[in-house]
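Shipment paperwork, digital attachment
Item: protein structure file
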Amino acid sequence: MSQPNATKPVFRSLDPGKIIETLETLARRVAERFPGTGLERVSRELTEVARHTSATIVQIARPNYTIRTFVAIILASALALLGWLLWEAVDLETSTELTNIMQGVDSATSFLIVLGGLALYLSTLESRWRRDKALKALHELRAIIHVIDMHQLTKDPSAFGAPRTSSSPERGMSPNQLLRYLGYCSELLSLASKVAALYADKLRDPAIVDAVGDIERLTAHLGQKIWQKIELVQQRMPTRPANDALAPHA
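Attachment content:
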């Protein structure tokens, strides 16, 4: 009796292509509704970062054969030195020769310890280089997240109708436009966290995973503040149409 074909798992890892495709669509939506704004520019910047992220991760995850070759040479040198010490110890004949050899052994042992420490350092150099590259990219992504938050900072629905001052920000958006704007900010934050999650998905370094977790918590916190504003806008709107025209993600 033939066994049914096992379904290939396709939802157990993030697909960079799908994330980029979603960001491209979102950037077009922002450009169509808010052309020439800072939110349009930051959405395109985030899309570009997502495009580079996939290639960056592949580059970071690729084995560094230069470092590995250096480590192999140093380990081979250490083993050769150890073999020479053992060979000299076997050929000892007199106490004078023993004294000379012991002095050599003491110096060689110190040199062997240095070689071992250098080999240990180089063996972790590749992982530290990979971690530094990933953390630098995640830091840039975190900066974009804060820029997105800055764009929604002055979009305060509680200020509608309040007296203006000479330094008051421009609040010419209608409630419908404000819903769209805040909704786009929320989506950008969510997708930014998905871009960050690509690093944790492909690079299992604990420091990288922790940095991605920090970004996910940051975007969740900022997104929660945005949705509080969205709910406030919806509460202040007198009526809602029967269709989905006022959905914040349209």
